[in-house]
């Protein structure tokens, strides 16, 4: 048992690190699980669910109560009067959006690691309970795998896959009723496998009955094992001709369940008119708005796949992408090995039945989960953890079979893989979780590459910013760092916005947030300090057009909607604060012009392809043959017979030329302004390109690098 003890010790240490990395109430559904514990601890009664009424426990009030009752006993003596303050919501939180770069936090924190007192202490006590339940699960998985294969190596690998799964560590170190039902279900599966090997025993039947009752009083996924245990009993009764043992098992399961858990299901019938309370839970949590089809299931399979191994925070934090691909490969290899094992043992019924029953657990549990996610949004692989005592032993058995088929000694590499998984699990909280909640620290100086700017917004001033000078397309992220200098202590928590704006003033990407990507409250930052605030503004997938890209910056008070007016360094009001951020090149319609011309090339990189001339309005159609190295402006000149300029309509393209790429079609619009009292006659319309900073022109095959587009008669 020493190796198992090492696994358990490492599991406890890692789980405590995960508990430290995640601020209170930020783990998956922890906010509402704790709310359920809190209300039971305060009132000593279960709440009645009323859809449409906001509560501190939300949909968790529809869950079976055992975990919450145990939690209430644990924290009842802890002063939790600061719960409402600790759960103040982040109005800009991006829950369930792992691709978002900001606002991972559901609630507002003065610090991600508050003192161990009040509600924070209660949360950590309940997390400690979760770690203890996780230990029970790991032990049960180990013993279930031993019963399945009678090999310590397989048992250790199964325990290690469970204990060092980053997602299992994360959930174990959180306030979540999954921890109790997973531990109880794992004990049930272990004892079911023992029963298959040893036959019926009154005490084991009683233990199974009690465990099933407790599990079904912890979460509805506890009921999934009932038909599987019943099938195991039928097999034993048929194989051993022990009908009496079957009746004892069935009778105990029915009586113990009715006495211990039946009251809660009867309560559901009385209050909500349904046995399980799931429709009420859906009404509170929110139903799925679109039809659930096979296509939907395939589209959301990523949630099951990623969510089993590592989907942290409010379902909005992932870890290194390569990790998921490695675990995909491990699962595929294990399935291949398991198939080989089934083929090899297809005639050994005694060994085949336990494996098939564990597989049935996974199939039944998956069907139940799919049925649930068809009603509400719940495509999370972690919801299969209640069946981990089936999953991990089968994975370990499959890996062992495949590796031993190649070389017997290769099977020991599975243990090395468990060690690597443990090492990776150690990295995750430091590299992927904790940084998402750590607020930026004050700076002494700003980056030398930052562009100076000044705009005061009440208590804070924008003094500089950094962003790459590049071309962006729909769906890209615009990275930008804004530097704030705190002028005075804020009395209110203020929000800021960064809107990506095109030349027409349309917003094509936006971030609304508290500073520090949601991690820094203005009521907590230090007067006189400078903060670097980094964001990635996602540009709309459907954005169109081509133009210069700018970022509009502003502040407002979210609760009241009051906008903080900007001022310059002299106190003069500013209409808006716009920061140059590059160029945007979205889909653009092909230019519609009346007159097409043989391409006329300028500077080897820009071709004129056509034009439309209507009175004094000129539209020019261009196609990029390369990327100009500077920004150029189109000159439009009307010359008389003496080559004097009598009309002009210079204009730059909306998308500066340094952002053009070969093949881009661009139009420029020009309004030609003529000299007053222009004499009647014929004039030449000349066009070309020049640099505004030095007036040098792009070369073309025309005198003075000016192409004669047309003759105008006035």
Detailed description of the structure:
The chain has 714 residues and is an alpha+beta fold. Helices cover 41% and strands 18% of the residues. The protein folds into three domains: 2-177 and 286-434, no CATH class; 451-585, Immunoglobulin-like, CATH 2.60.40; 595-713, Immunoglobulin-like (Sandwich). The chain has helices spanning 2-21, 30-43, 66-75, 83-86, 118-149, 152-163, 166-172, 178-198, 202-216, 225-240, 243-260, 262-272, 278-285, 294-299, 301-309, 321-344, 349-373, 388-406, 413-433, and strands at residues 451-457, 460-466, 471-472, 477-486, 495-501, 507-513, 530-538, 546-556, 563-564, 577-585, 595-602, 606-614, 617-624, 633-639, 645-648, 665-671, 673-674, 682-690, 707-713. Strands 3, 5, 6, 8, 9 and 10 form a six-stranded mixed sheet that branches. The protein has a five-stranded antiparallel sheet with strand order 17-15-14-18-19, with no helix packed on it. The mean pLDDT is 93.
């Amino acid at each position: 048992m020493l190796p198992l003890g090492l696994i358990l010790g490492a599991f406890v240490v890692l789980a405590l690190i995960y508990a430290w990395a995640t601020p209170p109430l930020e783990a998956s559904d922890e906010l509402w699980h704790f709310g359920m514990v809190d209300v039971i601890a305060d009132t000593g009664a279960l709440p009645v669910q009323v859809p449409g009424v906001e509560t501190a426990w939300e949909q968790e009030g529809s869950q079976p109560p055992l975990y919450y009752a145990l939690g209430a006993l644990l924290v009842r003596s802890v002063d939790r009067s600061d719960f409402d303050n600790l759960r103040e919501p982040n109005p800009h939180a991006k829950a369930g959006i792992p691709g978002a770069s900001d606002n991972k936090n559901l609630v507002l924190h003065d610090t991600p690691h508050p003192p161990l007192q009040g509600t924070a202490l209660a949360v950590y006590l309940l997390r400690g309970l979760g770690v203890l339940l996780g230990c029970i699960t790991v032990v049960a998985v180990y013993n279930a795998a031993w019963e399945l294969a009678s090999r310590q190596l397989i048992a250790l690998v199964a325990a290690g896959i469970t204990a060092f799964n980053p997602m299992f560590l994360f959930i174990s170190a959180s306030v979540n009723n999954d921890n109790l039902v997973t531990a109880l279900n794992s004990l049930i599966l272990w004892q079911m496998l023992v029963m298959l090997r040893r036959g019926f025993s009154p005490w084991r039947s009683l233990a199974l009955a009690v465990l099933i009752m407790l599990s079904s009083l912890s979460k509805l996924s506890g009921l999934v094992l009932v038909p599987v245990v019943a099938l195991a009993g039928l097999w034993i009764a048929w194989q051993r001709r022990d009908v009496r043992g079957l009746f004892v098992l069935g009778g105990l399961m029915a009586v113990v369940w009715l006495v211990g858990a039946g009251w809660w299901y009867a309560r559901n019938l009385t209050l909500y008119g349904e046995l399980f309370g799931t429709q009420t839970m859906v009404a509170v949590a929110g139903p799925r708005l679109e039809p659930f089809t096979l296509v939907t299931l395939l589209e959301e399979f990523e949630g099951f796949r990623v969510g089993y191994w590592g989907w942290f925070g409010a379902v909005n934090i992932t870890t290194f992408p390569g990790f998921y691909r490695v675990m995909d490969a491990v699962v595929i290899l294990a399935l291949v090995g398991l198939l080989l094992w089934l083929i090899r043992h297809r005639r050994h019924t005694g060994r085949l039945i336990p494996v098939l029953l564990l597989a049935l657990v996974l199939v039944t549990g998956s069907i139940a989960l799919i049925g649930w996610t068809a009603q509400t949004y719940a495509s999370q692989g972690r919801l299969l953890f209640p069946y981990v005592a089936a999953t991990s032993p089968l994975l370990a058995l499959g890996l062992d079979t495949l590796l031993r088929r190649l070389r017997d000694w290769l099977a020991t590499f599975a243990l090395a893989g468990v060690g690597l998984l443990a090492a990776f699990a150690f990295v995750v909280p430091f590299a992927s979780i904790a940084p998402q909640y750590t607020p930026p620290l004050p700076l002494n100086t700003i980056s030398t590459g930052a562009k100076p700017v000044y705009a005061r917004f009440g208590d804070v001033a924008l003094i500089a910013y950094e962003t790459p000078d590049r071309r962006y397309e729909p769906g890209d992220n615009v990275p930008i760092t804004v530097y704030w200098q705190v002028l005075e202590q804020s009395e209110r928590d203020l929000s800021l916005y960064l809107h990506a704006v095109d030349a027409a003033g349309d917003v094509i990407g936006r971030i609304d947030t508290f500073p520090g990507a949601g991690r820094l409250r203005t009521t907590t930052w230090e007067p006189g300090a400078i903060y670097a605030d980094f964001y990635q503004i996602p540009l709309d997938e459907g954005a169109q057009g081509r133009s210069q890209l700018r970022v509009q910056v502003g502040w407002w008070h979210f609760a009241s909607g009051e906008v903080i007016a900007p001022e310059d360094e002299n106190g003069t009001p500013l209409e808006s604060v716009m920061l140059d951020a590059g160029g945007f090149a979205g889909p653009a319609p092909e230019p519609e012009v009346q007159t097409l011309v043989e391409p006329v090339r300028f500077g080897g990189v820009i071709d004129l392809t056509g034009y439309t001339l209507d009175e004094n309005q000129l539209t020019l159609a261009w196609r990029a043959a390369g990327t100009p190295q500077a920004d150029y402006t189109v000159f439009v000149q009307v010359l008389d017979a003496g080559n004097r300029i009598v009309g002009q309509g210079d204009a730059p393209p909306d998308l500066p030329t340094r952002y053009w790429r070969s093949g881009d079609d661009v139009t420029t619009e020009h309004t030609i302004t003529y000299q007053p009292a222009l004499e009647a006659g014929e004039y030449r319309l000349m066009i070309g390109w020049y640099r505004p900073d030095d007036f040098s022109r792009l070369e073309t095959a025309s005198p003075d690098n000016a192409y004669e587009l047309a003759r105008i008669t006035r």
